Amino acid sequence: MKITRTEIPDVLLIEPVIFTDSRGWFMETFNEKKFLESLKTLNVAIPKSFVQDNHSCSSKGVLRGLHFQASPYAQGKLVRVVKGAAYDVVVDIRKDSQTYLQWFGIELNCTNNLMLWIPEGFAHGFLTLEDDTHFLYKTTDYYHKESERTILWSDPALSIQWPELGGYIVSQKDSEALTHDEVLI
Asked: Which residues are annotated as site, described as Participates in a stacking interaction with the thymidine ring of dTDP-4-oxo-6-deoxyglucose (predicted)?
């Protein structure tokens, strides 16, 4: 696997090695030893172990986020799309960070097979670009309802440039979310 830093240095882009032949293809989607060695090489903090896997399926135009869990239940996430395509966005919400409130977005799809490592301290969301998009993510802590937080996906102060699709399908919870300054008080 090839791991590179994004514009937000602690958020990493992971490109798996894909082996192809006449039968199809094979790729290793996670290898803890290689992952941790790469993080050490890049001088990135070593996360807690992954404890939960999640899988969502969405139709085109579904916008989920921006979600995170507050401490002490903060989660690191390793995310990927196994069917379809999504525009994935992370926002740095670590108040002491040099990249505080900066965002990074990238298309993850079943053709490029890219994965994104999102450490604790980031809000996360995605917009599905195709029907029947399957989004998988591993988390470093269990879901804890009382610690769940949502920042408004269209918070003007963040200026996230979501792809134009002629409208989005947003849950009531996500559409009624607070802005970052209201959530991060």
From this structure: 143
